[in-house]
Each structure stands twice: as C-alpha cells, then as structure tokens.
C-alpha cells in the first residue's frame, strides 16, 4: 500500500473539453474498492517531484485502473496528465488508498450520491460496482455540472440508468429543451431530489470544497445524521 | 486557503504506518472529540501538512518533509485507535 | 521504469545568482496557510506590543494609518523554495511602533488572528528590517496573503512574516512558534539555508 508501483498508460479518452480518462496497467495492483483513490508521482529530469491524489473511476479486481482528470488552469500536474501523457508512458502510483469514502456491494441500505464537477469520478466507481454486483440497494445520484459537454462518462452514466436514479443540475448551460434554467444546487433542489433523511441513506458527497461544504451543511439541516454523510473535498492544485 | 478531507492523507500516512490510517479514530487533545482521520480538516500549506479537528479547529498533528524524511508532531492527538 | 516521467518538467524552476541557495524564482504569489483564513473587520482590528511588565501599546486601524508609512521594495524567500524578487509593499516600520516600548527582553513572539505564532529575535524587527505591511503591489493586502495586515521580515524565510498579525509579545527566551515547534528552524536565515532543525 505504501510502496510506489509503476503504472503504464494503456489508453486515454477525451471526456470533456478540459478532461480525459486515463487507463493504467499497474502490475501487482490487485483491485480496489469503489471510492478509493491513488497517489500519482511525477519526476522531472532534474529530480523534482510532484505528487497528487486522484480518485479511481474503476472498481474491479484487476490490475487496471481508470482515472479521470480535469485540467486546472494553473495546475502543475493536471495539465500534464490531460495534455502530455501518452499511451505507453510510465508513471509512479501508490495505492489503493483510503478505506472511508467507499461503497461495498455487501451494503444494502439506500445510497444517495452527490457529485460536483469532476467529483463524479469516485461516484462513477460506486455506480459501476453497484451495477456489476447486481446490487438491489437503492442508488440515487445528484450530479451538478457546468454544461452538458462537461459530463464525465456521459454515455456510460446514461446506459446504467436502469440500475440507479439520476438528477442532473446544470449550473451554466442546459441541454436544448431542458425544462429549467441553469442554476446551482440549492437547499430546495437537494430536499426535492435526494433520498429523505427518514430513509436513513448513506450519503457520499464529492466535489470542490465550497460545493461539499454547502451540501454537507444542508444535509444536516435536512435531518441527515452527520455520521452517515461522507465527504471528499478536493482543493485546487 | 481551503481545506480538504483527511482522506487525502491516506498515501502519506500509509508510508509511515504501513496501513490505512484514514479509518483510525483520533481523539482531539483540545476538545476531546473523537473522529476518523478521514473527516479531519487538512491544510496542504506547502511548508507542511496541518491537520485540524473538525469540531474545534485545533491542530491535531502536522507533517513536514525534511529531505524525504517525514517529521510528525502528534501533540494534538490525545489517543489514536488503530482500525 | 526510467527515473523520470517523460515530458514532465513541473513549474518553471529558474535559478539565479541573486537567490539564496536552493531557491527558485517564481512570478506568482503562492498562498500557504496552516489554517482557515481569518476575516478581520477593520473596525475591530487592533495591533499591540505587549511587554514583560504587562504594559500594552496598541493601535487601531486609524492609529496605524496615521503613523509614518514606508514604501518597501524587497525580495522574499519562502522555505518551500520559491523566491520572488522586487516585491513592493507599504507599511509601518517596527522601529516606529517600538519607539515608546521599554523592555529588557531580547526575543518576541508574533501572534496572529487565527492562532498562528512565530518567534523572532527583537534585533531582527528593528533597524529598518521589519514592517507591519498592509499594501502589496499598490493594493490593500488580500486576506489570503495576510490582510488586513501582516508582519514583513524579508531577510528571514517567509513563514516568519506572520499573516493576520495581531500582537507581538516580548519574551525572555527564544521559544519556538508554530512551524518552529513542528520542525522548522528556530531562526530561518535563507542565506544560511536554515530550513529545519
């Protein structure tokens, strides 16, 4: 777990104008639980290193892992991963990491997933694991995203809607014919489109710090037990 | 500057403790609240990592890197229960 | 695998003979904080110097602004290896603020809104070496960078330039502050590369 392993890029795919998914082959990885993350370490020729954590979008028992990375305008690592990294390149990874923000197929309680932007990545892993296991636990997703073209894993998320329920909130631009104007997730949207606290769902919230902060506060106001609300905030490097 | 969740420390801490520490329960020496490290508030300051109690904001522990060797000050943790 | 990642160079790391050892030039202004950014209302802001006799010399925002203000152009050096050359600041010299202060102690502890502390010998605050700064690059200092006012001690690593400065306490001994307790050097001279103890 604490050892650095070598990962080789086997494929990449453009997901959004600013992000792509990257599939790595990591000999000895041995699978991961849905929601876990991986540390990625890059080393420049002069020995300078940069390490960042990325959520894993895949959750199977194999040595292949899929990441999805959004390019941050002033980032040091994400522009490299999105624009430069190519099939065949190697980088160092450490993981799978984290045993807290995870969903396991043996869980039977209802699950409310809430994602902001590229916070969808670990949530996708949970949706995939849920579908793959044929789980009958109720799964609901509330996904806040800027525009229709910013949706990560769009066709797959669409294809899996027989296994989970979904509400998408577009904050800047809506698809043609969409019944509502663009806007942020509000407390009212949250109350209307998520599993009520009375059903005691497990709630997973992932996104930028400000988004997660607001959502987590509202969830508690709406009666959710803070112990059942798990969050993963990401900063900005 | 905004904080992130204790989850982000999984990699660094696994190097030191050789197991997942994000589900370990830490008791804050300041307010006595006990919580998983995953919910602590983490400030990645560059100079070092500062981990604060999610209840009272006191510093639980800090990690600085001295030429590849981590140095941890755990003085804000009264008790650590391993997972 | 190869020892390095193909095509990765990281942020530009320009070396320069003007820089202390192990430092690189940066053109942005990284934000490094050990905690949440305190929001301090100017109506409630106060800075004080507190001595061993219990005497408190304090200034509210208007009183600080009424003092002689220096324009300061200086290089700054962060322990995380970035340096920024020719930064411009405005602030009040600690010489001005210490003019009426009587003390026999040789050391100080700077305290910030938000609880941060850092220790500085008194000599390093005097003789035109340190300021309470409230403008950067012609603009009021951003809260992220320590506004309304921060300590500015450019000849030491920048963690000594405490953001959101609230008070300076005189101390008998050179007791370690926040980062100093956690492994950083008690003094922090960038030219001697005093990063850690």
Automatic annotation (TrEMBL), chain B:
It comes from the Bacteria. InterPro entries: DUF6510. This is Uncharacterized protein. It comes from Glaciihabitans arcticus.
TrEMBL record, chain C:
InterPro entries: OxRdtase_Mopterin-bd_dom, OxRdtase_Mopterin-bd_sf. Residues 1-22 are annotated as: Disordered. It comes from the Bacteria. Coiled coil: none annotated. It comes from Glaciihabitans arcticus. This is Sulfite oxidase-like oxidoreductase. Pfam families: Oxidored_molyb. Residues 35-179 form the Oxidoreductase molybdopterin-binding domain. The lineage of its organism: Bacteria, Bacillati, Actinomycetota, Actinomycetes, Micrococcales.
């Amino acid at each position: 777990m604490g050892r650095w392993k070598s990962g080789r890029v086997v494929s990449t795919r453009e997901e959004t104008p600013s992000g792509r998914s990257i599939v790595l082959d990591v000999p000895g990885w041995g699978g991961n639980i849905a929601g876990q993350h991986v540390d990625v370490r890059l080393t420049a020729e002069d020995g300078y290193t940069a390490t960042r954590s990325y959520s894993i979008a895949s959750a199977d028992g194999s040595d292949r892992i899929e990441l999805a990375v959004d390019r941050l305008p002033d980032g040091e690592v994400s522009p490299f991963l999105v624009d430069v990294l190519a099939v065949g390149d190697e980088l160092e990874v450490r993981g799978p990491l984290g045993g807290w923000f995870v969903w396991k197929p043996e869980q039977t309680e209802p699950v409310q997933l809430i994602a902001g932007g590229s916070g969808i990545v670990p949530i996708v892993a949970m949706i995939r694991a849920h579908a793959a296991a044929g789980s009958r636990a109720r799964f609901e997703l509330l996904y806040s995203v800027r525009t229709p073209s910013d949706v990560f894993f769009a066709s797959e998320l669409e294809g899996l809607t027989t296994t989970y329920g979904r509400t998408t909130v577009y904050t800047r631009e809506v698809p043609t014919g969409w019944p509502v104007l663009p806007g942020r997730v509000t407390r009212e949207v949250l109350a209307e489109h998520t599993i009520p606290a009375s059903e005691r769902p497990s709630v997973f919230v992932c996104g930028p710090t400000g988004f997660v902060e607001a959502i987590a506060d509202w969830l508690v106001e709406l009666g959710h037990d803070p112990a059942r609300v798990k969050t993963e905030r990401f900063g900005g490097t | 500057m905004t904080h992130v969740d204790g989850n982000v420390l999984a990699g660094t801490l696994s190097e030191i403790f050789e197991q997942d520490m994000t589900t370990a329960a830490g008791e804050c020496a300041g307010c006595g609240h006990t919580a998983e490290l995953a919910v602590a508030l983490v400030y990645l300051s560059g100079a070092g990592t500062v981990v604060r109690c999610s209840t009272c904001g006191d510093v639980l522990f800090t990690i600085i890197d001295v030429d590849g060797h981590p140095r941890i000050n755990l003085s804000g943790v009264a008790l650590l229960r391993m997972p | 695998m190869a020892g390095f990642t193909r095509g990765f160079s990281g942020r530009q790391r320009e070396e320069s003979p003007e820089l202390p050892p192990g430092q690189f030039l940066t053109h942005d202004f990284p934000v490094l904080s050990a905690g949440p950014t305190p929001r301090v209302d100017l109506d409630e802001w106060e800075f004080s110097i507190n001595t061993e006799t219990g005497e408190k010399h304090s200034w509210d925002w208007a009183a600080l602004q009424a003092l002689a203000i220096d324009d300061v152009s200086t290089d700054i050096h962060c322990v995380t290896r970035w340096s920024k050359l020719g930064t411009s600041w405005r602030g009040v010299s600690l010489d001005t603020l210490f003019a009426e202060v009587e003390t026999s102690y040789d050391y100080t502890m700077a305290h910030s809104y938000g609880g941060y502390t850092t220790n500085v010998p008194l000599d390093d605050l005097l003789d035109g070496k340190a300021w309470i700064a409230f403008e950067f690059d012609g603009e009021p200092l951003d809260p992220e960078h320590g506004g309304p006012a921060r300590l500015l001690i450019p000849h030491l690593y920048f963690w000594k330039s405490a953001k959101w400065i609230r008070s300076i306490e005189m101390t008998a001994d050179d007791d370690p502050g926040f980062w100093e307790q956690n492994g950083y050097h008690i003094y922090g001279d960038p030219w001697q590369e005093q990063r850690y103890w």
